[in-house]
Known about the structure:
Layout: H1 10-24, H2 29-38, H3 45-53, H4 61-70, H5 75-79, E1 89-93, E2 96-99, H6 100-108, H7 117-122, E3 129-133, E4 140-144, H8 147-160
Antiparallel strand pairs: 1-2, 3-4
Helix pairs in contact: 2-3
Amino acid sequence: MEHTADTATPVDTLRKRVKELRGRAGLTGADLADRLARLGVNWNRSIVANFEAGRRPNVSVVEWLALAQALDVAPLHLLVSPDATDADLYQVTPTRTAAVPVVREWIRGYYPLNADPARFEREAPRTETVSVSLGEMGYQVTLDRSPASMRALEQFIRTVSPGATSADDKGEGA
């Protein structure tokens, strides 16, 4: 999708989330700067204020990860607001937007964003994903290997194929 003028940039979202989470945690700008300093990121109260006010236009990846750790949230939840709805668009690049749920799955590494699914899957560590083809249904999905996803997959397989067994049922482990 093309970019629209009213779509917030990733840095705008990050900025808003930092301010929101800092306030919710009861942290001052100096408190957040102290936490960042303990993580090796040399920010002070003024840098925090300048970033939150938009006077500091960007953050590095190291700063983004440190901000997430300092605020006790997943990096994804700084980059994409948990309050965003499924209908909201997210500005992925200066010229491209995508639906928030699709962006979340892409950032998590679950689903390609306008990319070749085979190449996307090849680059994922085998310990993190499992690809399932549902043959005649013509459906292919790549899932993370979290216990919740594996249970959901097994439940789905049992629903569409009664009598199917899982690797656990065979004593092989998941």
